[in-house]
Amino acid sequence: ADTATMNKIGIIGSGLIGKSWAMLFACSGYDVMLYDVISDQLQSALVDIEAQLSALYKEGLQRSSLTLAEVKGHICTTTILEECVTGAIYIQECVPENRDLKRDVWRQIDDVITPDDVVFATSTSAIVPSLLSDHLKKRHRFMVAHPANPPLLNPMVELVPAPWTEPAAVERARALMEVIGQVPIVLNKEIDGFVQARIQAAIIHVAWQLVSEDYVDVESLETAMSEGLGGWYAFMGPFDVKHINANGFVDSNKKYGAMVEQVQKTFPKPELMQGPAAEKLTRDLEQWTPSNRLADRCRWRDRRMSALLQLKRKLDEE
Ligand code: NAI
């Protein structure tokens, strides 16, 4: 195979996440072929990619040594699935979060002739990989590669194998993620929510109790995260935090373990967030960020996330 072929990445679906993957791979010099069923969607995806990249380059936040024009030159589009998949070394599916749709798209990809070492990855947020790949001939190469939004500013990618996924395929995906500057974590086996959404679900569970049962107002709850816990967790995880906040994890457990368990025993049963408490929460959030200002708030977040990412990379170099 020639160099161009060795460098080809196939991306299925050109929405929010497909565009993000396209930019990530193209910024590292891979040749991206973006596929969608809707030709107009591909055209607007290219326009949006250009706008997003321009904004990053203008603010000096690009994560590539290539020029904007070079990055753009690494992205092309097609409405023919076979053309997207053929010759690709890695295929990242980003179609809407619908199990039947994803199964069908993967069955079509499975039918295209691809070399044995091609990685099949889905961006799914919540569907465990066994439920998307049991019907595939090449299911041993299939896994979840779940990015965190927004992927250009949030480097973590969860790699989740199905019971039949070959370790070598996971290793190839891990290596590729590292080449494009993402930070992969690899699960040993699948579980609902993977890691990030599971932890997030636990946080929301407790936060909902605190607000809905009126222990604290939403502003204070948000402050506890942004001015308190978030400071640690932007740099380290919960076990490391415990380890150094006492004289090691064992000491921390001895001192605070029973307290933690006592608090956990007061966690309520999971419930849907609805009713008057949800309406009040919505009103409070609306006051904070009105629905018609969400895009501004996203930009506010992105500027901060990107500054933090740059700071972290700088600190890591010291
Ligand atoms: P989206 O709705 O923005 O984009 C989906 C794209 O797939 C559209 O361009 C659509 O035209 C295209 N499409 C529909 N049917 C298709 C088919 N049969 N073949 C090819 N393309 C097809 O969705 P989004 O947000 O990009 O999500 C994609 C996947 O990424 C979902 O599985 C989602 O759960 C996951 N994800 C989403 C995140 C988010 O924050 N939005 C974060 C991480 C993962």
How does this structure look, described?
The protein is of the alpha/beta class. The protein folds into 2 domains: 3-186, NAD(P)-binding Rossmann-like Domain (Rossmann fold, 3-Layer(aba) Sandwich); 199-317, Orthogonal Bundle (N-(1-d-carboxylethyl)-l-norvaline Dehydrogenase, domain 2), CATH 1.10.1040.10. 54% of the residues lie in helices and 12% in strands. The chain has 14 helices and 8 strands. The protein has helices spanning 3-6, 16-27, 39-58, 68-73, 81-85, 99-111, 130-133, 167-179, 196-212, 218-233, 238-245, 249-264, 276-288, 294-317; strands at 8-12, 31-35, 75-78, 90-93, 119-122, 142-147, 156-161, 183-186. The chain has an 8-stranded mixed sheet with strand order 3-2-1-4-5-6-7-8, sandwiched between helices. It starts with a helix and ends with a helix. The mean pLDDT is 95. The structure holds 1,4-dihydronicotinamide adenine dinucleotide.
Condensed summary:
This protein is 54% helix and 12% strand. It has 318 residues and is of the alpha/beta class.
Please give a handful of descriptors for the protein shown.
single chain, alpha/beta, Rossmann fold, 2 domains, 8-stranded mixed sheet, globular, binds 1,4-dihydronicotinamide adenine dinucleotide
